[in-house]
Every structure is written in C-alpha cells, then in structure tokens.
Amino acid sequence: MATQSSSQGSRSSTKSRGRRRTCFCGERPVLRTSSTAENSGRRFWGCVNFQIGDGCDYFAWAEPEGQDPQIQRLKNKASSLKEELQKAERKFVLAVGVGILGWTMAGLLLCDRLN
C-alpha cells in the first residue's frame, strides 16, 4: 500500500484530536500502516475508498514523526521498571545488612554462652 505525500494532509484543516472525523468524501477515515521504505510501519489515516477509484485522497499521519504512542508507552514502562528495580535493590541491601547483623549477634551470643 503506497502512501500519499504529507502535503495532502494539509487539506484537512478541520481536525478533532489531530485528525478529521470524516475525510473529504464524507466517510470516516481508516487507520492504515505505511509500507513504503521511507515510512515503513508508520500509521496514517486515509480515505476508506483509497485505491478503489473513488477515494478523495485524504491523508494525515496518525502521530507526529518520532512520537509513536507505543514507543512512548514502552519508554514509560521501562522507566517504571527501572524505579521498581532500584527499590527492590535497596530492600535487598537492607535485608542483607539485617541478616548479617543478626548472624553476627547470634555468633556473639553463642561465643558468650560458651565462655
């Protein structure tokens, strides 16, 4: 599926949340995925009649370049997981410290009882 040039997206001046509710022929745009080498995998909104012959050539990128929502979600998840890991590492260090202190105290008490 070939994509249209991004200049055609400028025809969509009436937008709601970054895209029109209807394309130029009155239909609801459909979310498609580009298969061109330049924009491979990038999502865009296009006329439901695209490549059928009656399409109005409506085109708009689904998200600004470099701001794929899935990438942002994954970055947020990675950040959250790093924070959780740091908390777990602090708890582990504290538990090891308490364990060492406990075994040291038990060893001292045992030595004291044996003497």
UniProtKB/TrEMBL annotation:
The keyword Metal-binding applies. Pfam families: Zn_ribbon_GRF. PROSITE patterns: ZF_GRF. Residues 1-13 have a biased composition (Low complexity). GO terms for molecular function: zinc ion binding. The keyword Zinc-finger applies. The chain crosses the membrane at residues 92-110. InterPro entries: Znf_GRF. It comes from the Eukaryota. Keywords: Membrane, Metal-binding, Transmembrane, Transmembrane helix, Zinc, Zinc-finger. Residues 1-20 are annotated as: Disordered. Residues 23-65 form the GRF-type domain. This is GRF-type domain-containing protein.
